Input
Amino acid sequence: MSLLQVRNISKRFGGVAAVDDVSFDLPAGQLLALIGPNGAGKSTCFNMVNGQLHADAGSILLDGHELIGMPPPAIWRLGVGRTFQTVATFGSMTVVENVQMALLSHERKLFKLWQPAHRFKREAALELLDQVGMAAQADRPCSVLAYGDVKRVELAIALANQPRLLLMDEPTAGMAPQERNALMALTKKLVVERNIAVLFTEHSMDVVFSFADRMLVLARGKLIAEGNAETIRNHPKVQEVYFGTGKTFELKKVPA
Ligand code: ADP
Ligand code: MG
Output
């Protein structure tokens, strides 16, 4: 049984079928990309999985537990983490303090925050930072970090909750190509090492084809194709709907 099983979910906004009868599976240890043109329904799909939106119909099972109807914090506690498109760290705190906060929050010990946070979980936080390549910058305030480094910290924060499923809506937005590849390579490594499942949206086809194990293509709320890079690249519906009729696209080699 796949970790995440999405069956026939739909969401309407007035007359718009934002997501229309979408089903897919996501096993642990897999990096699944959700792609499609603007307005295709990607964010709506995401928000149904994390509980911010309630699906009108269908079923979303995490390890057999129905998520539809559960409030977002309960879904988070079941192990569904997310990173945000915009930066969500506390700039005035240091890198390691941000991760300590996340670890404390994971243990529901926020009530203890009147005690100096630096006493708690520093070692565990440093270990997480080491995994995302940020240990050397642990004591710098988040506000002075380069954008790509903040994204690494966000990943460490998300990992503090020990997610089984991580949702990343446009994780590489605003990044230079090299930073994008570095972040996705890191994500891929964590997926394998921790056996977690990641669902992400991404604009850059280079990134998607280089790193995703599998991809789902949405167009006007419908799932029009699903498969690996080879399948998606050659899929006539994808060529037509996503890349524009008659327009071919080139797959660039990503530098290692
Ligand atoms: P994507 O993330 O793929 O760009 P969205 O899921 O944001 O697409 O949007 C899918 C469709 O649903 C679009 O037509 C969008 O205008 C509409 N939509 C999304 N959210 C809302 C909302 N809160 N209210 C009304 N319409 C919405
Ligand atoms: Mg979106």
